[in-house]
Amino acid sequence: MTDAFDADAIVVGSGFGGAVAAARLAQAGFSVIVVERGRRWAPGEFPRRPRLEDGWLWDVGRGLYDIRWLGRMGSVHGAGWGGGSLVYANVFARPSEEALDERWPAHLRRAELDPYYDLAAHMMGVAPVGDDPRTGRPPARTALVERLIHDMAMSEATVRPNLAVTFGDPDTWRPNAHEVPRRGCAFVGECVIGCNHGAKNTLDTTYLAVAERCGARAVTDAEVRRIEPRRGGYAVIAATPSDPRAAERVWSAPRVVLAAGSVATTELLLRSRDVHGTLPSLSRHLGEGFSGNGDFLTLAELRDSQQDMTTGPTITTNTVLDVPEGRRPVWFQVQDGTFPPPLHALFDTVLPARAARAWWRRKVRHTTPRHLFTVLAMGRDSANGTLRLDRSGKATLSWRNRWQGHLYRSQLRVGPLLARLLDARLYHPVTWSLLRRTITVHALGGVRSGRDATTGVVDEAGEVHGYPGLFVMDGSVLPAATGVNPSATILAAAERSIETMIRRSGRPGWRAPEWHAVSPTEVPEDAAFAFMSQRHALTKGDGIVFTEHLSTEHRRPRVAMTLTAEIPGLDRFLTDPAHPIPMRGVIEVEGVTSHTEVGGTLSLFPDGDQAAMSYALRFDDPDGRPWHLRGTKTVRSRTPMALLTGLTHLHVEIRPGDAASGDGESCVLAIGFRDLLRLGSSLAGVGFTRARRLRAVLRFATFFATSALRHGTSSSPPQSHTTAGPDTFR
Ligand SMILES: Cc1cc2nc3c(=O)[nH]c(=O)nc-3n(C[C@H](O)[C@H](O)[C@H](O)COP(=O)(O)OP(=O)(O)OC[C@H]3O[C@@H](n4cnc5c(N)ncnc54)[C@H](O)[C@@H]3O)c2cc1C
User: Fold this and answer.
1) pLDDT reported for residue 352
2) 654: closest CA among 606, 608, 609, 600?
3) Can you tell me whether residue 340 is helix, strand or coil?
4) Ligand 1 in contact with 76 (CB < 6 A)?
5) pLDDT means per 10 residues in the chain (730 residues)?
6) Is 194 left (phi over 0), alpha (psi -120 to 50) or beta?
7) Rounded to an integer, what distance in angstroms lies between the CA atom of residue 144 and that of residue 153?
8) Could you give the 3-state DSSP secondary structure of residue 172?
9) Cβ atoms of residues 688 and 576 within 8 Å
10) Does ligand 1 come within 6 angstroms of the Cβ of 77?
11) How many CB atoms lie under 10 A from the CB of residue 80?
12) Ligand 1 centre from 466 Cα, in Å?
């Protein structure tokens, strides 16, 4: 540092980006000042009383939550030493590489950032939720979601995400990896209102603790208002929020890292360019690329339940969905969340008709705040909002987010589905019900990178084009929605940027000292993404299910079987020339087995085959001996009678899998009149919406009718009633 400056570097904001910058700069030997507008919050100090004056809002006594109304969207931020980590839900997630489109430059993609994610995971101490130490079981909400998804045969779509939380003994304080005392999580579900128990691995207990230990100077209660070039570096000019009449404070340094969060950083730069004129050469792209990360919040309330939905950390599960919406697929994820009772009490106090609402809840709905939980969906919005300044110099958002409509429509379908499956009531925030405006807790973008000022505001290390030494390292540099909770990406990107910055400042081989202790962290969400994208390919075009019952009726040997057919995706089914349908069910074969599981494939109107339908099934007798059933249905002419007879009579041969062909039985199974009606009524579409299910049924019916007629004209009698069916048994 030269005498002309107060420090080697100034970091503005102590959230995710700022904390990384402060820690690494201090470890690299720079003198650092971290300027934060909010206060420090220690365990036990977070607001709990149902009064706004208790420190809930930044605008009411410089409290914890800063809620910004940006015109087209609300945006929620944490304020204080530790930024968003003070109020966040601890989820440490990586976006799927598939979710990153061409707007994501190579330096922000998984291949480049994965080692930095691992480094950040190590620093934050992440792990998925386990059992509640007081009950020995997972939280009720976690179990509820996991059971639901299991019942929907999608278990792999749900994972327990990594959380930056200390788990273990909730009663004993122990130093974490950064020598800060932490206790094990008490499963009280209050992460998002600040953890009074001391179990969250917030930034003040991780990166910022490292920064301060290495000499960084923390200045809280200082809100930076503008940046101006000074003596080859920059001056940072701040007001004192607790005392508006206090004189402005000024610090200067050759390097300044802006990390005030997407909205505040963009606003600060816009003001410096357009109001104060101190940074006039900032790119004209400043403010572009704003994203709300596709956030959509719904509140669910279980009816008639004894279960407490408020235990556990705030978020415990993450479900990845990849569903068709209109003509394109929409991908998003859904997370359960607590609605902390103290927050409920606060809403009760500030909203009108408190007594009437309490009566209604108790007497009519029979619910308590413990039956409420949040359902937070997030995904890829268009990320092409633009932050500008309004007349008073405050950030406001302009956005014609058409793609967003698509995403929200899809996300909105999850609510009714959950309501039906869980027997829950749903509530949307009033901003949505009345104004069709969403609230984001994951504001991103505004300061995207580019080769030069004509394409972006900063370069790939976050250095502002035209202003050497001025850097941006927070959510504003992410070019689009991550579609997952973004703090891990902000940390990883900041780790990479600060490493580059330190190396550019004359320490070419510099690495963070913790690298030696870092090992690859498990990424639970990757498995869910992979499962869902596979399932998406399989279920394209939506599916069909039906059940049929066939039997020899009164003839001997008596054979009967009930089979359920499930086509997962019609697109695949129709393009495969064999038109295969997986079948499962039970079979009874006189003298062989009485009620046994059977499975295999039905080839429905296979292209170029004489048979209209070929069955290849397999079952085991009670001694474990495998048996094969092969059968065909054949249509001999187009007359209605011939069609009906051909399609309802199955000529089968049943043989033991290990015997000579002579040991088999041949017979004809038929679908009786009543069973035919039952078959028709069992036919159902499988899809995300009623319209899609109906469309699937119509598509299948059209295929069935045209194929049946075609087979009726082209068929000649089969050579034998045991025409080979598909030769794969499943
Ligand atoms: C309720 C809630 C739950 C969330 N849960 C998750 C989650 O589970 N996982 C996840 O990944 N993300 C979550 N997030 C989002 C996450 O908190 C943000 O993405 C993240 O905090 C953004 O990091 P940042 O570095 O960009 O800025 P921030 O963390 O917002 O830090 C900015 C800091 O700068 C300070 N500041 C602002 N303006 C000035 C100024 N002019 N002068 C000085 N200081 C200033 C602020 O007070 C703040 O401390 C959640 C957010 C909320 C609100």
Assistant:
1) 80
2) 600
3) coil
4) yes
5) 86 98 98 98 97 96 97 96 98 92 94 98 97 95 94 92 97 97 97 98 98 98 97 97 96 98 98 97 98 94 87 97 79 94 91 81 79 93 95 93 76 83 87 87 97 97 98 98 97 98 95 96 95 87 94 90 95 95 96 93 94 96 93 90 93 82 80 94 90 93 93 56 35
6) left
7) 14
8) coil
9) no
10) yes
11) 31
12) 27
Residue found under tokens 């995300």: 688
Atom of ligand 1 nearest to the CA of 238: 42
| Calpha distance 124→200 (Å, rounded) | 10
CB-CB contact of 378 with 442 (8 Å): yes
Ligand 1 contact, 15 CB (< 6 A): yes
DSSP state of 194: -
Q: Whose Cα sits closest to atom 28 in ligand 1?
A: 15
- For the chain, the 3-state helix, strand and coil shares in percent, each to the nearest 5, are 30, 25, 40
Output the CA 84–ligand 1 centroid distance in Å: 3
Q: What is the DSSP string of 692-724?
A: HHHHHHHHHHHHHHHHHHHHHHH----SSTT--
DSSP label at residue 21: H
What pLDDT is attached to residue 662?
A: 55
In order, the DSSP letters of 341-369 are: HHHHHHHHHHSS-HHHHHHIIIIII---G
Core vs surface per residue 334-357: b (16+ CB within 10 A) or e: bbbbbbbbbbbebeeeeeeeeeee
Q: Are 381 and 303 in contact (CB under 8 A)?
A: no
Amino acid at 694: L
- CATH number given to 9-517+524-532: 3.50.50.60
Q: What is the dihedral sign for C-alpha 80, 77, 461, 255?
A: negative
Residue 386 and residue 263: Cα distance in Å, rounded?
11
Mutation pick for ligand 1 pocket among 58, 88, 221 (CB with most ligand atoms within 8 Å): 88
Distances in Å between the alpha carbon of 177 and those of 207, 251, 514?
11, 32, 10
Strands 9-12 and 32-35, sheet pairing: parallel
pLDDT score for 717: 47
414 vs 411: CA distance, rounded Å = 6
Please give the pLDDT value at position 305: 77
What is the rounded end-to-end Cα distance, in angstroms, of the chain?
72
Protein residue closest via CA to atom 17 of ligand 1: 84
CA of 85 to the centre of ligand 1 (A): 6
Residue 653 phi, psi dihedral angles, 5° rounding:
-130, 130
Instruction: Record the tokens describing residue 222, joined without a space.
Output: 């200082």
Question: For 186, phi and psi rounded to 5 degrees?
Answer: -95, 5
Residue spans of the domains in the chain: they are 9-517+524-532, 539-714
Report d(CA 40, CA 204) in Å as an integer: 9
Two structure tokens written together for 641:
């009678």
CB 139 within 8 A of CB 316: yes
Task: Tell me the pairing of strands 233-239 and 249-253.
Answer: antiparallel
Peptide bond into 557 cis (omega under 30): yes
Return the amino acid letter for 593.
T
pTM reported for the whole predicted model: 0.87
- Alpha-carbon distance values, 259 to 12, 13, 36, 264 (Å): 5, 5, 10, 9
